[in-house]
UniProtKB/TrEMBL annotation:
Keyword set includes Endoplasmic reticulum: no
Protein family (similarity comment): Belongs to the LOR family.
Keyword Amino-acid biosynthesis listed: no
Biological source species: Phaseolus angularis (Azuki bean)
Transmembrane segments: none
Name listed for the protein in its UniProt record: Protein LURP-one-related 15
Keywords annotated in UniProt: Signal
Signal peptide start and end residues: 1-18
């Protein structure tokens, strides 16, 4: 399939935006849109490289969902390492490849008194930026800003794509989405990798790889987030997977 400008859809980060601008205005607006095309390195389900990032330019803007400062400009992906704490498997430290702390995660202990799972994502200064809450009766997660649980502070909702599936898939709806079409989709692979796509497209924006290894009861995972994608948002999605 090819889109309006005659380019392969893998070269578009914002497929829906492209179609809307082209249909509504055409001409000059399409030229403006071409400047915003996010050309990055994509992989298909088998891990095959689809485009050469070295020869491409990243777009001049980010896609903030949590905040602008978490949208690193291109051309290279942001690689993060998630490490589970020794004492608490649901507490994490997120570092860059140089070992600098980027985020920390703290979760409550689920009990009869507190049956609902809560996790909090903190920035490198210890400020709470995301509160994740899992429902009691199903596997639905909601993310709120800061430590809030108010609907006005909702960021996204994540739930199963379907009841019966061979490989796990999760749909992610941003707070302002009132349709039945998800904004992002998380898919598992047979190799144990998790991939994050835009909606129901094949446009990959992040990968959560299998364990880097286990040392002294500390499990580590590598996360690659493509340029200009909000990596705080991606980390929040990962927390809902309960790796």
């Amino acid at each position: 399939m090819r889109l309006g400008l005659g380019l392969d859809p893998l070269l578009y980060l914002y497929v829906s935006a492209c179609m809307e601008v082209e249909e509504d205005s055409g001409g000059r607006e399409i030229k403006e849109l071409e400047k915003r095309i996010c050309v990055m390195m994509f992989w298909d389900d088998d891990g095959v490289q689809q485009s050469n990032m070295a020869n491409q330019l990243s777009p001049p803007f980010g896609t903030p969902i949590i905040a602008h400062q978490y949208c690193a400009p291109g051309p290279h992906p942001v690689d993060l390492i998630i490490t589970k704490e020794r004492s608490r498997a649901d507490n994490f430290t997120v570092t860059d490849t140089n070992g600098n702390i980027v985020f920390t995660v703290k979760s409550n202990l689920v009990s009869i008194v507190k049956p609902r799972k809560h996790s909090f994502l903190f920035d490198s200064h210890g400020n709470p930026i995301v509160h994740l809450r899992r429902s009691i009766q199903n596997n639905v997660w909601k993310a709120f800003r800061g430590q809030s649980e108010e609907s006005r502070d909702l960021i996204f909702t994540r739930h199963n794509s379907s009841l019966f599936q061979l490989r796990l898939k999760f749909d992610v709806f941003l707070a302002n989405n009132v349709t039945d079409v998800c904004d992002f989709k998380i898919k598992s692979s047979w190799s144990g990798r998790w991939d994050v796509y835009i909606g129901d497209s094949n446009i990959l924006v992040a990968q959560i790889n299998t364990k880097l290894g286990t040392m002294f009861s500390r499990e580590k995972y590598m996360v690659s987030v493509f340029p200009n994608i909000d990596h705080a948002f991606i980390v929040a999605l990962i927390l809902t997977l309960q790796l």
